[in-house]
Amino acid sequence: MDYERLVASFKYAWQGIVDVWQNEQNFRIHACVALTMVVLGFVFSLNAIEWLFVILAITGVLSTELMNTAVERSVDLITREQHPLAKRAKDASAAAVLIYACMAFIVGIVIFVPKIIKWCLVFF
Ligand SMILES: Nc1ncnc2c1ncn2[C@@H]1O[C@H](COP(=O)(O)OP(=O)(O)OP(=O)(O)O)[C@@H](O)[C@H]1O
Predict the structure, then answer these.
(1) What is the pLDDT of residues 83-97, one digit of tens each?
(2) At which positions is a divalent metal cation bound (predicted)?
(3) Contact 69, 20 (CB under 8 A)
(4) Nearest one of 58, 69, 72 to 101, comparing CA atoms
(5) Predicted ipTM of the assembly
(6) Annotated binding site for a divalent metal cation, which residues?
(7) Catalytic residue among 41, 58, 65, 69
């Protein structure tokens, strides 16, 4: 097994995450929302199934956002001119993020809203 190549591939993936973090506002917003969900998860002591849904939602949104950035940059590399196909490619890619973000939003509502309501009823 070529361990150097394996380690290098992790390094390149990490560089990709850092680069997207530094250059894409949407990724930073998603990452902050993800961090908030993790903190709330500990605050409300989620069970294993709830954690699985939260982790799937978080990793799915961040991964689709990374892929969306890859598509945007690839399109920009091919052409900087306005082209209907460039628009369709970028919009389809953005739609993938939107669909997954909606799913993550629903997961957040279903898991956290009942717990927040319960917490409010206890304290107020
Ligand atoms: N080369 C292009 N040809 C035609 N439409 C484009 C092109 N580049 C972007 N668009 C479209 O213009 C709109 C606005 O794009 P936007 O400002 O989000 O730029 P982006 O390059 O897609 O994303 P970002 O700002 O994150 O780099 C979107 O509908 C997008 O599909």
Answers:
(1) 999 999 999 999 999
(2) 24, 72
(3) yes
(4) 58
(5) 0.90
(6) 24, 72
(7) 65
C-alpha angle with apex 42: 38 to 43, nearest 5 degrees? Answer: 110
CATH number for region 3-123: 1.10.287.3610
Return d(Cα 20, Cα 117) in angstroms, integer.
36
Q: Where are the domains of the chain?
A: 3-123
Q: Give me the DSSP letters along 25-82.
A: HHHHHHHHHHHHHHHHHHHTT--HHHHHHHHHHHHHHHHHHHHHHHHHHHHHHH-SS-
**Distance separating alpha carbons of residues 2 and 23, to the nearest angstrom:** 32
Active site residue 4: no
Q: How many CB atoms lie within 10 A of CB 13?
A: 11
User: How far apart are alpha carbons 122 and 11 in whole angstroms?
Assistant: 47
Q: Which tens digits make up the pLDDT trace of 96-109?
A: 999 999 999 999 99
Ligand 1 interacting residues, C-beta cut-off 6 A: 72, 79, 82-83, 86-87, 90-91
Residue 40, C-beta contacts closer than 8 angstroms, at least 6 positions apart: 112
